[in-house]
Amino acid sequence: MGANYSSTWHEANLSTTPQIKRSQVIAFHSSAKWKLHFDSLKDTNKLVVIDFTATWCGPCKYMEPVINDFAAKYTDVEFVKIDVDELADVAQEYGVQAMPTFVLIKKGEVVDKIVGADKDGLQKKIQKHRAIFI
């Protein structure tokens, strides 16, 4: 009976752990809220990765779990999800013409960009730009 109780407790704790890790990607549904958030990050050295996506985009759906995994792995990087149909003005501001497009920003400036579902390329650029040079 004690082993069964222990197993249940263990399973309950395992099921809550991934939810905590996946909460790293922030989705914006308002241009005004995005602008406020973006402005708050301009003075930090934190790398921001914007995932420009669309609900109808197959490659975007492929990249969604990849972005969630990166967000759990690179906790010093901010991951943002913006739907191009919802916030077309923000997508236009960054010159997004294909999905998915990943824009990497540091101190308010675009430092890199990846167009397409290039998991390895995105990971290399994240690793390159997240490094803090003193």
Automatic annotation (TrEMBL):
Localisation per UniProt entry: Cytoplasm
**Protein name per the record:** Thioredoxin domain-containing protein
Q: What is its main location?
A: cytoplasm
List each copy of the Thioredoxin domain by range. Answer: 1-131
Protein family according to the UniProt entry:
Belongs to the thioredoxin family. Plant H-type subfamily.
Under the heading Gene3D superfamilies, the entry gives: Glutaredoxin
Q: Which UniProt keywords apply?
A: Cytoplasm, Disulfide bond
Source organism: Datura stramonium
Q: Does the keyword Cytoplasm apply?
A: yes
Tell me one Pfam family matched here: Thioredoxin
